[in-house]
Specification:
This protein has 237 residues and is of the alpha/beta class. The chain has a single domain, classed as Rossmann fold (3-Layer(aba) Sandwich), CATH 3.40.50. Helices cover 54% and strands 7% of the residues. The protein is built from 12 helices and 4 strands. Strands 3-2-1-4 form a 4-stranded parallel beta sheet, with helices on both faces. Helix 2 links the parallel strand 1 and strand 2. Helix 1 packs across helix 8. The longest helix has 18 residues. The model has no long low-confidence stretch (mean pLDDT 95). It holds the Pfam family NAD_synthase. One of its GO terms (biological process) is NAD+ biosynthetic process. This is NH(3)-dependent NAD(+) synthetase.
């Protein structure tokens, strides 16, 4: 499907799903990355007068915050900045001390999820997530964090397809080219943490072909993260 039709289809899909739910519009996080920029632009097209982007720094890179504002202003997206530093600090203060870097880092996206649902409730909006098919396939998202959303418009697009959509929508080039990161800690990148490149991952998803070690790594990550892609299990009786 040509990119213009993909864009129109996603905008229509967002509008239909949100209207079906009896909601008024969409709320989403603006992180300064390509995925959130694309989602923001799509939501603005679907609900020009009833969408809201939340910029939620939590000891985040200042450049990411600046890029999030740049996207909001370029597309005319209403936005709020909610600084979560003090909430994060206070939450850590009441928990058992730990050196587990990932357990601590995952608090950040879960605080953002709470914030998104607060504003969703205030406005009768649905929470629109920014995850793409590449991330979903290997479980590269925080359960009940950035994975805690109502709709995933990019869920059937791999990363390189998201880049194509970003170009079509007019996302600033520096944001398109910037190394993807979850913003969990200083210097963290998606590819560095996954141990594979998006090119390798996308190619395997689209063609089923990869070097044996890459294929096994993707399959292993998919198996281990299966619980993230399903509702909680319950007994048969």
């Amino acid at each position: 499907m040509e990119i213009a039709k993909v864009c129109d289809s996603l905008v229509d899909w967002l509008r239909e799903r949100i209207n079906e739910a009896g909601a008024r519009g969409a709320v989403f996080g603006l992180s300064g990355g390509i995925d959130s920029a694309v989602v923001g632009a799509l939501c603005k097209r679907a609900f020009p007068k009833s969408c809201l982007g939340l910029i939620m720094p939590c000891y985040s890179n200042l450049k990411d915050e600046e890029d999030a504002v740049k996207v909001a202003e370029k597309f005319g997206i209403p936005y709020k900045k909610i600084v979560l530093n003090s909430v994060y600090d206070e939450f850590l203060n009441i928990l058992d001390k730990s050196d587990d870097k990932m357990a601590i880092a995952n608090i950040k996206p879960r605080l953002r999820m709470i914030t998104l649902y607060y504003y969703a409730a205030l406005n009768n909006y649905l929470v629109v997530g920014t995850g793409n098919k590449s991330e979903l396939t290997v479980g590269y998202f925080t359960k009940y964090g950035d994975g805690g959303v109502d709709l995933l418009p990019l869920g059937n697009l791999v990363k390189k397809q998201v880049r194509g959509l970003a170009v079509y929508l007019g996302i600033p080039q520096d944001i398109i080219e910037k190394p993807p990161t979850g913003g969990l800690w200083e210097g963290q990148t998606d590819e560095g943490e996954m141990g594979i490149t998006y090119e390798e991952l996308d190619n395997y998803i689209l063609t089923g072909r990869a070097k044996p070690e890459i294929e096994e790594k993707i399959k292993s990550m998919n198996r281990k993260s299966e619980h993230k892609r399903k509702l909680p299990l319950k007994p048969a009786f």
